Amino acid sequence: MDLGLKQRTALVCAASAGLGFACAEALAREGVAVTITGRDGARLEAAAVRLRVIGPEIRTAVGDITTVAGREAALTACPMPDILVNNAGGPPPGDFREFTDAQWQAALNANLLTPIALIRAVLDGMIIRKFGRIVNITSASVKSPIGMLPLSNTARTGLTGFVAGVARDVARHNVTINNLLPGPFATDRQVAISAAASKASGKSPEEETAARAAANPAGRFGRAEEFGAACAFLCSVQAGFIVGQNILLDGGAFNSTF
Ligand code: NAP
Questions:
Q1: Does the beta carbon of 251 lie inside 6 Å of ligand 1?
Q2: CA-to-CA distance for 224 and 244, rounded, in angstroms?
């Protein structure tokens, strides 16, 4: 299927690895000019080199997307994106009692206020141009809270509420906003989660990873390229009627009839 995205521009945040990179890769394959961001300049450039093999035009913006300076760098490299993929690292796991106020504020900044700031920066241009696709990478924890991730549960649910309202306000301009909710995907983030879980269970991180993969209905973790393909479809011209949705990619781990 031709997704109708040739010569569109995309800003994909936190995309030198993992799910963000997979989204950038899938969009680059569709002929989108993609700007990727990340904090580590060398890692970001290495990712750009990989993308330039498949994509027509790949730019980079080094910086922490959760800071004003990082967002300015991203928007300078890609001032009028047709597509925005919001992403940033996830907050650390832990007991909610033990996080400081500064840690709570950092999580809210990274996973709630940062995507809202970027949406605010690009949305009106999309409305004027009558095309826009915004995809927020959130988490399965929005539907099914994860006890050891209280910072993530809280910040991402706030973003979900924000999107539910604004997505309906802008849909008539052919601007869609949706959330993609990853369950367990085989990225560096999972390595960190298995390490944290192993401290609590006494199992090795490898045993934790294997047990968690086996417990998934699909019998495995998701592959980043599966996530990227779903993101590219949500950005397609064909997806213009998908509005304000929260789409789980979790191998069926969330157990419900609907
Ligand atoms: P990852 O493998 O750890 O990749 C993170 C990427 O984001 C790297 O390129 C990293 O590069 C960049 N990054 C992190 N913080 C950044 C920041 N503040 N500014 C700019 N770039 C930043 O993570 P992932 O697994 O792809 O996860 C992506 C998101 O989905 C995270 O929020 C995660 O919590 C969430 N999620 C993931 C899973 C999963 O199974 N993987 C499940 C649920 C939710 P630098 O370090 O160089 O900046």
A1: no
A2: 23
Q: What is the C-alpha to C-alpha distance for residues 176 and 18, in angstroms, rounded to an integer?
A: 24
d(CA 197, CA 146): 12
User: What whole-number distance in Å separates Cα of residue 203 and Cα of residue 26?
Assistant: 36
SS3 85: strand
| Structure token pair of residue 213 | 């993969």
Q: Give distance in angstroms: CA of 253 to centre of ligand 1.
A: 21
Sign of CA dihedral 146, 147, 149, 150: positive
- Which among 22, 26, 20, 11 is positioned nearest to 59, based on CA atoms? 11
What is the structure's pLDDT at 124? 98
Q: Taking the alpha carbons of 204, 208, 209, 210 in that order, is the dihedral positive or negative?
A: positive
Residue 132 backbone phi and psi in degrees, to 5: -165, 145
> Of ligand 1's atoms, which has the minimum distance to the CA of residue 65?
19
Q: How far apart are CA 142 and CA 133, in angstroms?
A: 21
* pLDDT digit string (tens) for the chain, length 258 residues: 999 999 999 999 999 999 999 999 999 999 999 999 999 999 999 999 999 999 879 999 999 999 999 999 999 999 999 999 999 999 999 999 999 999 999 999 999 999 999 999 999 999 999 999 999 999 999 999 999 999 999 999 999 999 999 999 999 999 999 999 999 999 988 888 888 888 888 899 999 999 999 999 999 999 999 999 999 999 999 999 999 999 999 999 999 999
Pocket test residue of 11, 37, 160, 187 for ligand 1, highest count of atoms within 8 A of CB = 187
